[in-house]
Specification:
The complex is a heterodimer of chains A (267) and B (323).
Chain A: H1 2-19, H2 24-29, H3 31-41, E1 56-59, H4 65-75, H5 115-128, E2 135-140, H6 147-158, E3 164-170, E4 173-174, E5 177-178, H7 179-182, H8 188-194, E6 198-203, H9 207-219, E7 225-230, H10 253-262
Parallel strand pairs in A: 1-2, 2-3, 3-7, 6-7
Antiparallel strand pairs in A: 4-5
Helix pairs in contact in A: 1-3, 1-4, 1-10, 3-4, 3-9, 5-6
Chain B: E1 5-7, H1 8-22, E2 26-30, H2 34-37, H3 40-45, E3 50-52, H4 57-69, E4 73-79, H5 80-86, H6 88-96, E5 102-107, H7 125-130, E6 136-138, H8 143-154, E7 160-163, E8 168-170, E9 185-188, E10 193-197, H9 201-214, E11 219-223, E12 226-228, H10 232-242, E13 245-252, H11 257-268, E14 273-278, H12 288-294, H13 299-315
Parallel strand pairs in B: 2-3, 2-4, 4-5, 5-7, 6-7, 10-11, 10-13, 13-14
Antiparallel strand pairs in B: 1-8, 6-12, 9-11
Classes of the chains: A alpha/beta (267), B alpha/beta (323).
């Protein structure tokens, strides 16, 4: 799995460089979360993307589409060669995920703050259908500044939606800098607890810990779980790490060589 | 002769409860206004398929999207002003773009909301919904049509906006008359001017046509219940004969039915037209009837507009700039 995460990172750098734009920073910080989900946690079948019993994954932070596309391609939803068409005219790999265009995309996202609400609806539907599939959602930390998340958080705990697991990719950076300088999120754990959620805090680059946390979430009954995953934005590429400049900018050709060599070795 | 009136909201609630009986995939969402929007009728019978979202419309629309993505047919209801303005982005991103099966059933549209005033009088909602790709926009003329539209959209895939009023409106369509999304209906034949109405303004078009008859003018009344997609065929068929048009809507003249007709005629015809609607302003508190007068939404306003349109048709030689 570590090898998968490394491959995913390489794809992210290659795709965003080929496209000349995209969001490498947050894509790199969520590489382990997505790898663990698609290779260990989610009940899914790339051959049957519409299988009703599958677990659902909603990428609320839609701008890290490159990471999701890389994982989906590695999982077998579509050929990895297609990754390099990211953001091209006519490509199924839209700049932000578009439902119905590409197999494996459960919801169109990109305007931040909407994924937990969508997960709420999917979770209610699973309950109505007496299906035991689970809903997973990945949010950025910056997007939690948006009020809709907290409407959604209130709703999920009110209805006791214990089939929802939300990840917060807590890389602490957004476009204009540190989340705590832009609009502080802390105390984040207490916020979620106050909204009635089961809160688990982990190292978001520790694959085993991610899998364990999902197991803990599955065992928690009567309330939804949020996993606050502490991560490093730009993780794995030396000059991108903790650098907000690479939130929404790809690297130059020279930088790309350095990035790829950073990603040669084991993480 | 006293006119029979009925509530669009009540007929919507009745239709929704009937749909729930026939189809288990129907679910309803409310944002703490169910007793007014009448989703409470559904809630009483199907509490398990009714979800109270509280005063949190953005989450309601997102939740609706998630339910629809999982195969449910979702009716999400609140007042028109909140349903469209407060969560426009949620509708755009999570419902319209992925083409999900969410029916936004909004009540309390227009100036006739009355006493609550401008904050609650949606006069821009049709413009907001009409500009959105994949969205169907329906403004039923009366309670019978509100009922039929509700039933019709349930079996039509994709997003839809249904616009209903607060007050009781005159019943002008027949209970047994067919209703088809995207089809206008001619309620009165005439050769001199076409009055195209939506919502409760259709009944005022009929009254205006009666007044015009006394002046020797034969007005045709077209009920454009579906504002998007516009029934261009019906419009052409009528306007080719009458050669001038008046639109009437309980909405801003910007972006609603009048705009839709003007856009179509601007590109495809050159018939004079006059719009009856609210002239780019907010409303205010007052009795609905007083407000309809103050904001230019009466049968007299339609008659006046028809005279103007006909005069322009008769004098038409190039552009005429006139009040």
């Amino acid at each position: 799995m570590k090898e998968k995460a490394r491959l995913v990172r390489r794809h992210i750098v290659e795709m965003t460089c080929a496209a000349g734009s995209g969001h490498p920073g947050g894509s790199l910080s969520s590489a382990e979360i997505l790898t663990a989900l698609y290779f260990r946690v989610l009940k899914h079948d790339p051959k049957r993307p519409d299988w009703e019993g599958r677990d659902r994954f909603v990428l609320s932070k839609g701008h890290v589409a490159p990471a999701l596309y890389a994982v989906l391609a590695e999982a077998g939803y579509f050929p990895t060669e297609e990754l390099l068409t990211l953001r091209e005219l006519g490509s199924r790999l839209q700049g932000h995920p578009s439902k119905g265009k590409l197999p494996g995309i459960e919801m169109s996202t990109g305007s931040l703050g909407q994924g937990i609400s969508v997960s709420n609806g999917m979770a209610l539907a699973a309950r109505l259908d007496s299906s035991d599939h689970r809903i997973y959602c990945l949010c950025g930390d910056g997007e939690l500044q948006s009020g809709q998340n907290w409407e959604a958080a209130m709703f999920a705990s009110h209805y006791g939606l214990d089939n929802i697991t939300v990840f917060v990719d807590r890389n602490r950076l957004q476009i204009m800098g540190d989340t705590e300088d832009v609009l502080s999120l802390e105390p984040l754990e207490e916020k979620w607890t106050g909204f009635g959620w089961n809160v688990i805090v982990i190292d978001g680059h520790d694959l085993e810990r991610i899998i364990e946390a999902c197991e803990e979430a599955r065992r928690c009954k009567g309330r939804p779980t949020v996993i606050i995953a502490n991560t490093v934005k730009g993780r794995g590429v030396s000059f991108m790490e903790n650098n907000p400049d690479f939130h929404g900018k790809c690297c130059s050709e020279e930088q790309k060589d350095l990035a790829m060599s950073d990603l040669e070795g084991c993480l | 002769m006293p006119v029979k009136k009925a509530s669009q909201r009540s007929f919507f609630g009745k239709a929704l409860a009937e749909l729930g009986e026939a189809d288990e995939s129907i679910v309803a969402l409310d944002a703490d206004l169910g007793s007014s929007t009448k989703t409470s009728d559904f809630a009483k019978v199907f509490p398990d398929r009714f979800f109270q979202c509280g005063i949190a419309e953005q989450n309601m629309m997102g939740t609706a999207a998630g339910l629809a993505a999982a195969g449910k047919t979702v009716f999400a209801s609140t007042f028109a002003v909140f349903a469209t303005g407060r969560c426009w982005d949620q509708i755009r991103q999570s419902i319209a773009y992925p083409q999900l099966n969410v029916k936004i059933a909004a009540t309390h549209c227009g100036i006739s909301v009355g006493g609550d005033g401008a904050s609650h009088q949606a006069l821009e909602d049709v413009a907001l919904m009409r500009a959105m790709p994949n969205m169907t926009v329906i403004c039923p003329a009366d309670a019978n049509e509100a009922y039929k539209a509700t039933i019709a959209v349930a079996s039509m895939p994709g997003p839809c906006y249904i616009r209903m009023g607060r007050a009781d409106f005159p019943l002008i369509t027949d209970e047994d008359a067919p209703f088809e999304v995207g089809k206008a209906s001619i309620l009165r034949k005439g050769k001199d001017v076409t009055l195209v109405g939506s919502g409760q303004m259709v009944s005022l078009c009929l009254e205006a046509a009666e007044m015009l008859k006394e002046e020797g003018v034969a007005a045709e009344v077209l009920n454009m219940a579906t504002v998007k997609p516009l029934d261009a065929e019906a419009l052409i068929e009528s306007v080719e004969r009458t050669r001038c048009v008046v639109t009437a809507e309980e909405h801003s003249v910007i972006g609603g039915l009048g705009s839709a007709v003007a856009e179509f005629l601007g590109e495809n015809g050159n018939q004079p037209m006059v719009r009856v609607g609210v002239r780019d302003s907010f409303g205010e508190s007052g009795d609905p009837e007083e407000l309809m007068v103050k904001y230019g939404l009466t049968k007299e306003d339609i008659v006046h507009a028809a005279r103007k349109a006909i005069a322009r048709k008769q004098k038409k030689k190039g552009f005429l700039w006139r009040k």
